[in-house]
Amino acid sequence: MISADAFSNILVTYVKPTNKETAFDMGLSLAKSNNAKLSVVEFMQAEQPEFLFFKSKNNKKKENEQKHLVEDALKKFEEKAKQENVDLKTSFKSTETLVDSIIQYVESNKIDLLIVDHPHMSHSEETHYNDVVSAIHDEVHCNMLTLK
Fold it and tell me: What separation in angstroms does the CA of 48 have from each of 59, 60, 76, 95?
């Protein structure tokens, strides 16, 4: 059994754009009850550009729209954490290798609890997502909580 103050460094991350409140609220609650540091990192999988060697205006526009949505969500999380007196670090990272980026972040920041969302998806999306979560679970060397 894990003691109540077992976690000192918690990471909440998202592998698919979704309702982020559930995972964040769980991380915030656990960080507050454990007097732990909380990080929220949005890892956005970089999409292949329309043209092989450079991004089109549409690629850049879509990327900027996603970035603004993520930044707005992170600002709301920062305000909520401040109200709860929880130390929160937020960031946004674009990556080509989602699993490797998450694992690297966990290891380099000495995370002891990783919280990952589990959104409702179509069957094909769920198959892909389950593969990603399984890969993270197999590689990560800390406790992991997957939320539905």
Answer: 9, 12, 30, 11
DSSP class of 31: H
Q: Give the pLDDT confidence of 53-65 residue by residue, as tens digits.
A: 666 777 678 778 8
Q: 40 vs 9, 21, 59, 121, 123, CA distance in Å?
A: 11, 11, 25, 22, 27
Give the bridge partners for 92, in sequence order. 42
pTM over 0.90: no
DSSP 45-89: EPPPPSBTTB--HHHHHHHHHHHHHHHHHHHHHHHHHHHTT--EE
**How far is it, in rounded angstroms, from Cα 29 to Cα 106?**
20
